Amino acid sequence: MVTINRVADLEELISSAALKFIDVVAQAQSLNGGVHGDGIARVVLTGGGAGIGMLKELRRLDQAARDQGEDFPALRIDWERIHIFFGDERNVPVSDPDSNEGQAREALLDHVDIPNRHIHGFDLGAISMSSAADAYEEELREYAPQGFDLHLLGMGGEGHINSLFPHTDAVREQEEFVVAVHDSPKPPSERLTLTLPAIAKAKHVWLLVAGEEKAEAAAHVAAGSPAEDWPAAGAHGAEETILFLAENAAGKLPK
Question: Which NCBIfam families did the record assign (predicted)?
Answer without folding.
Answer: pgl
